[in-house]
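Hey team,

Filing this mostly as a record. A colleague (T.K.) asked me to run one chain through the structure pipeline before their review meeting, and I want the input and output archived in the tracker in case anyone asks later how it was produced. No errors, nothing strange. Just documentation.

Input sequence:
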Amino acid sequence: MDPRETLAQLFASWRQGDALRAAAHFAPDGIYAEAGRAPLMGRDEIVAHFTRFFRDGPRWRFEVDELLVEGGQAAVFYRFLIAREGGEWTQRRGCAFVRFESGAVAEWREYEA
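Output structure:
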C-alpha cells in the first residue's frame, strides 16, 4: 500500500473510532508521538492509547488541510478540533511528519503550530 492510501485508511479508522484498525496501520515497532507528550513505542502502546481516547475522550474531529507525500515520507498539516460544552468547537493546528517502512507508519511525530 502506498503512503497516501495508508494515511487515508488511518484517518478513516480514526473517524470510525476503530482503535485496532488504526493501530494496524503502524509497524509493530512503530512510534506515535503527539506534540508535547512522550512517544508511544510499538503497536501495543498505540492501540491502548487509541482505545482509551476513543472510549473516554471528548467528541473530536481531525481535519487534514494539506498532505505532502514524497517517497517514504509525508507531512500532514491538520486541525484537531474538540467539542466543548454548549456545542462550541475549539481547535489547534499542527503538523505531523510521518515516515513509512514497508507500507506501514514507522513513525508519526506531531508538532503544534
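Quick notes for T.K.: The helical segments are 3-15, 19-23, 43-56. The chain has a mean pLDDT of 96.
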